[in-house]
Each structure stands twice: as C-alpha cells, then as structure tokens.
Amino acid sequence: MRDDDFRRSDNIDDRRDGGGGGFGGGGGFGRGGLGIGTILILGLVGYAFGIDPRILIGGAEILTGGGSAPSYQTDNRPSKTGAPTDDMGKMISGVLGEIDDRWSEIFRANGQSYSGPRIVLFRNATNGGRCGMAQSAMGPFYCPPDKQIFLDTSFFKQVETRFHGCSGSACRFTAAYIIAHEAGHHIQNLLGILPKVTRLQQQAGSKAEANALQVKVELQADCLSGVWVNREEKKRPGFLEPGDIDAALTTASAIGDDTLQRQATGHVVPDSFTHGSAAQRKRWFMTGYQQGTVQACNTFAADSL
Q1: Which is nearest to 104 in space by CA: 117, 115, 119, 118?
Q2: Of 101, 161, 182, 205, which has the fewest Cβ atoms less than 10 A away?
Q3: What residues of the chain score a pLDDT lower than 70?
Q4: Which residues contact 48 (CB under 8 A, 6 or more apart)?
C-alpha cells in the first residue's frame, strides 16, 4: 500500500509512552510486542477485533447513553495529541485521514454530515473511557459511547508473525483494513444500527440468536471496510500494490470464528460465532470492495451470509 500522500489526521490520542515504534526493515511490521502465547492464554477475542465485547451483547444501556459505565483503573501514561511522527503512527493517522475524507464524501452525497472517530494508540492497557479498561488481549476495538477506536499497535506487529498473511508493504494495507473495519463500526453507530442491534439482542430468545445478530454487525463492518478501499482506489489509483488484497483476505480468513475455534479446541460451534466464518468475512469484504456502496453491505437483509 502506498500511503505517502495520504492526508494525516490529527484526531489521535497517542498513549504509547511518548510514541515510537515502526514497521521494521523494508517497511515490514517487524517482530516483538505482546507475545503470541500471552494473547492465546488471555483469549481468542484479541484476534477477532470489532466492538468492545462487553458492549454489544448486554450493553445496550451503555451504548445508548443510559446506565453506568464499567469501572476502570486510572491510567497515568503520558498522552500526545495530534498526528504521530513515527512510521507506524504516521501510517495510522494517514489511513484515518483518508477514511474520514472518503466517508465524508459518501455522507455528503446522501445529504448527511459526518464526524469521524478518534483513535487511541496505547501499549498493554489504558483507560477505555465508558468501555472500561482497554487491554492488548482484546485486540483493536471500537467503543460506541465514546466514538473512539482503541489500538494497541503491537497487534499489528503480530499480524505478520501470527497469521503469516503479509510481508512488506502488504502489512500496511492489512493494518489499514483493520482500521477501516473499526471505522465501519463507527459508521454503524452514526447510522443508528448499533443501538438497534443491541435492543434486538436484549429481546432475543437465546444466546445463539443474539450471537447471530452480532455476526451480521461484524460482517457489515468488513463490508464497509471494503467500501472504503473501493472509494480510495478510485480517488488514488495505484495506492494498492500487488498482494495487498490477498493479504487482507488472508487475515480475514485467519480471524474467522471457525478458524479460531478449530485452532483452540479442535472443533467448531457455529451457534457461538460472533464475527463470522472465514468464508463469510472474505465474502463481505469483497462485496464492499467490488460494489463500493453502503447499500451492498446490508447483511441484515441478506438471504444468506
């Protein structure tokens, strides 16, 4: 992915102990950060990324502004606002800037106004506001009540070592896909989809039914990330490089619920899916990428996912 001419957003709260970090030699993600074994012990959700797992199911009151927020510990790490200056930080701020620009255009064309999410960069753990503590093991996630995306940048370094889904500049695009997925949740929030889903989940007759609704939310976010890539490619022909889409699809496949369950337990339980299977995640990203419209991403009306 070529991002040298991306517009850098300053809507970033950098809590990485003064910033720093990069993509390693040759533009790759490098190695290090939170160990793979640590993440596996702490839970599979760290590889799924999505909405704060404490919010969607059973979190309607917090999402809609009512009730009390989860408790959290005070985080005294130094914080920097504005566009970061390190390699990884510049990539993230550039992707956010382009996401905001493309979605602003889409909303404007439909007579709507758009206000983008804020990204919080951190290491290990940080104050997640109304979503409680943000921890590395949770993976990247979107906090609906605060309209913020939380990213421990060590997660991006794990993409190459854990999934073997990218190398070099393709890892940058895989990171962009992940950020665009989280921004997709922000779009759902702005459009009123998330509050509606949480109400439906609380009315659901079973956990499996509530999970099925969450799967549709996550697959729609995958699709919306594909919409951004479609619009960005039209705006900046050549920003995608050979292998970029394949790398994103490899990551989407690696974080499918069926893949993660099979690796962890040796068997698959579809009723417990919360993000969708590998095939579903790939299908909906490609739907958004190929069609480039929000209307194409209506997973709730689809005959089959």
Answers
A1: 115
A2: 205
A3: 18-79, 160, 162-169, 254-274
A4: 139, 218, 255, 257, 260, 274, 275
* Alpha-carbon span 156 to 28, nearest angstrom: 10
How far is the C-alpha of 248 from the C-alpha of 180, rounded, in Å?
A: 11
Sign of the CA dihedral running 87, 18, 30, 167: negative
What one-letter code names the amino acid at 65?
G
How many whole angstroms separate alpha carbon 68 and alpha carbon 61? Answer: 8
DSSP string, 164-201: ----THHHHHHHHHHHHHHHHHHHHHHTTHHHHHHHHH
With DSSP H G I counted as helix, E B as strand and the rest as coil, what are the percentages for the chain, rounded to 5? 55, 10, 40
Distance CA 83, CA 10 (A): 4
Euclidean distance between CA atoms 180 and 245, whole angstroms: 14
pTM of the model: 0.81
Residues in the chain: 305
Burial 53-84 (b: 16+ CB within 10 A, else e): bbbbbebbebbeeeeeeeebeeeeeebbeebb
H/E segment holding residue 51? strand 50-51
Copy the structure tokens of residue 1.
């992915």
How many angstroms separate the CA atoms of 106 and 121, rounded? Answer: 27
Torsion of the alpha carbons at 134, 192, 283 and 182, rounded to the nearest 10: -30
| pLDDT at position 180 | 96
What are the residues facing 122 on neighbouring strands?
152
What is the rounded CA–CA span in Å between residue 65 and residue 130? 10
pLDDT at 112: 95
With beta carbons less than 8 A apart as the criterion, state whether 227 and 292 touch.
yes
